[in-house]
Write a structure and sequence with these properties.
A 6-stranded parallel sheet has the order 3-2-1-4-5-6, sandwiched between helices. Strands 11-10-9-12-13-14 form a 6-stranded parallel sheet. It is elongated and about 75 Å long. Helices cover about 45% and strands about 15% of the residues. The protein has 3 domains: about 210 residues, NAD(P)-binding Rossmann-like Domain (Rossmann fold, 3-Layer(aba) Sandwich), CATH 3.40.50; about 90 residues, N-(1-d-carboxylethyl)-l-norvaline Dehydrogenase, domain 2 (Orthogonal Bundle); about 140 residues, 3-Layer(aba) Sandwich (Rossmann fold). With about 475 residues, it is an alpha/beta fold. The protein binds uridine-5'-diphosphate-xylopyranose. The site of uridine-5'-diphosphate-xylopyranose has 19 residues, from helix 9. This is UDP-glucose 6-dehydrogenase. One of its GO terms (biological process) is polysaccharide biosynthetic process. It is an enzyme of class 1 (oxidoreductase).
Amino acid sequence: MRVCVIGTGYVGLVTGACLAHIGHHVICIDNNADKVALMQSGQSPIFEPGLAEIMQAAMQAGNLEFTTDLGAGVAHGEILFIAVGTPALPTGESDTRYVEAVARGIGSHLNGGYKVIVNKSTVPIGSGDWVKRIVLDGVAERQQTIAGFDVVSNPEFLREGSAVFDTFNPDRIVLGSNSTKAIAMMRKLYAPIIARRFAEDPFLLPVPVVETDISSAEMIKYAANAFLATKISFINEVANICDRVGADVTQVAQGIGLDSRIGKKFLQAGIGWGGSCFPKDVSALIHTAVDYGYDAQLLRKAVAVNERQKLIALEKLQQVLKILKGKTIGLLGLTFKPDTDDMRDAPALILIEQLNRLGAKVKAYDPIIAQTGMAHGLSDVKVESDAVQLADGCDALVLITEWQSFRKLDYAKLGEKMISKIIIDGRNFLDPEVLTASGFQYIGIGRPTHKDITSTPSVGAELVATY
Ligand code: UDX
C-alpha cells in the first residue's frame, strides 16, 4: 500500500521504517531539512536498536523515502499517518499545535482518491473529530472536491529501546473509527503484522485487533500509560514501606506478580518513571478530567509518589553520608532507561539539580552519552568517558540507569578509586553479593542491605528443623 508518515520522531520514523520493511511504499515527511538529509543518507536521527538497519534495507528496496515536501507525501499516500509530537505545555496540558498544523497542511493538499488519515500521535480525547474538521476547512478553502477521507485513531504502544521489536510484536492493535472502509484498509495495512509474519515467534495466535470508536481508542492510549505509571508508583510505594519494615521488594514483586491478575511486568521498584510518554500522558489525562469537572485523584497521587521517588537516592545518600556539601557523587547512567539516548523527564535531572543545590559535586558516566557525545541540558554535571574515571574521587556511586554493561564492571577496581565505597542501586539491578564482595556498602531500593540479609537468622529454617 502507499503510505505517508508525517513527523519522523520516535513513533513516526519507527512506524514508517517498519511498514516499509513489510513491503509498503512509505514516504516520511519532516519539516526539519537537516534531519531529512540525515535520513536520506540512511542514518537514524535517534539511537534505537535495529532501526538504522531496517531503514537502510527498506531504502535499498525502494520502499522508503524521506522528504520535506508535504504535498508530495499527501499525493502519494492512501494512508496518511499524523505522527508529530504532542509535548506537555507548562500547565501539563497537551500541546496540539503541531497536529493542528499537519491537519491544516493535509487539508490544503488533499486531492485524488479516498484517503485514511490516521492519528498516531497521542492526542487529547476528542481530537479525531477535531482533526476531521480542520482537514475539511482546508479543503473548503480551496473549493476542491475530493473523493473523501476518514479519520482513524491508531495509538502506538512501542517502548523506546525496543521500538522495532514492539512494532513487529505488538500485544494488540487498536483501531478507532466510525468507518468500516477505513478500518478495512488499516487491517490490510497491518495484515502481515497481525498474522505475525515478521514476529519473533510466528507460531503465536494472530495479534488481537481491538476495533472501537475514535474517543475510546484515544482513551485506551492514555489509560494504558496511566495504568503502567501507576503500577510503578504502587511498587515504589511498597518499596518504601519495605525499607522501613525490612522486607525485600524484589521478592514481594515476584510474589505478587505471579498472580496472573497482577502480572509480573512493571513491578521493578526504583528511582521513578520518566521518559517522553508517561509524565506527559498522565498529566494530560489529569487535565482532560479537570476540563470535564472531574478530579482524577488516583492519577494525581501516582504523579506525586513519582516526584518523591525521584529523590529517594538523595534521601539514601543523606542517610549514609550525612552532609553532602563538598562530597562527590558519581552517577552510573543518565538516560531515563537503558538502550536509548533520551533524557526527556529523566529522573536523573531532578537528582542532579538537588545534589547541586546541596553543594555536592556531581559526575556521571552513561555509555550512550559517552558514545554520542550528546550531553544537552547537562550543564551541572561533569560527564566522564568511562566508569573508572567516574569512580575517581567519589564518595558514593548511584546507579541511575540499568545498562547491561554496568553488571560487568570491575567494582573492586572502581572501589579502589573512591573515597568511600558506597553504592546506591537505584534500579535494584546489581547483585548485592558481588558488590559486597568488592568491598562496597550496597544500598538498594526497598531491599535490606546485604549485611541485613546475611545477618538475619533464618527463622523459617530453624522452625522447619525443630519441627
Ligand atoms: C512507555 C510505554 O511502555 C509504551 O507503551 C508507550 O508507547 C510509551 O511509553 P517508554 O517511555 O519507552 O514506553 O518506556 P518504559 O519501558 O515503559 O519505561 C518508562 C519508565 O518507567 C522508565 O523511566 C522506566 O525506568 C520506568 N520503569 C518501568 C520502572 O521504574 N519500573 C518498571 O517496572 C518499568
